[in-house]
Amino acid sequence: MSQSTNPLLTPWTGPFGMPPFEQIAAEHFEEAFEAGFQQHNAEIQAVADSTAEPDFENTLMALEKSGSLFRRVGLVFHNLTSSHTNDDLKAIERKMAPRLAAHHAAFFLNEPVFKRIDTLFKQREGLVLAADEKRLIERYHLDFVRAGAQLKGDQRKEFAQNSERLAQCFTRFKIGRAHV
Question: How confident is the model at residue 129 (pLDDT cuts 50, 70, 90)?
Fold first, then answer.
């Protein structure tokens, strides 16, 4: 399958930008998630690798803009698995649950990204920002802290493993299968 034949990887031209549900099949999701993972990882890595001093634009806005394909694919997938699932989608859901959790954990445990966010968080009162921009900094910082960003060494690895295991358990519970 190529990007030109996968409706999840092509521009959506339907009313209001709706996905072409009638063209989407279960086998499209793995390729689309892979492309989404790769794109999102590259965008996150660009923020992590930036040598510029952290500021609202090059850190928070860059993160806000990152992951568009990943989010788009995820929204369609979760919509279908919640409202119009089938055995093929359930199999993909079982397979993807730990990968999605690992991606999520890798984002929130990315030390260089958290360091940039933490720097902005500590400087937020001295920065010339609108109230909603300061709130976004606070929200990102809180989300990263709650997702384990301040953990050290083996705690980080254990946290990521537990996240993957919880995703598997949740998926098993959700779709009612004993084997995940």
Answer: very high
Which residues are CB-neighbours of 9 under 8 A, at least 6 positions away?
Answer: 3, 31, 32, 35, 69
Reduced DSSP (H G I as helix, E B as strand, rest coil) percent helix, strand, coil of the chain, to 5? 75, 0, 25
Phi-psi region of 16 (alpha: psi -120 to 50; beta: other; left: phi over 0): left
Whether residue 35 contacts residue 3, with contact meaning beta carbons closer than 8 Å, is answered with yes
**What pLDDT digit, counting tens, does each position of 16-34 carry?**
989 999 999 999 999 999 9
Q: Are 165 and 102 a contacting pair, CB within 8 Å?
A: no
Distance CA 37, CA 121 (A): 27
- 67 and 43 Cβ atoms separated by less than 8 Å: yes
Contacts of 130 (CB under 8 A, 6+ apart): none
Higher pLDDT, 142 or 174: 142
For the chain, the C-alpha Rg in angstroms (whole number) is 18
If you search the block for the tokens 């004993």, which residue do you land on?
178
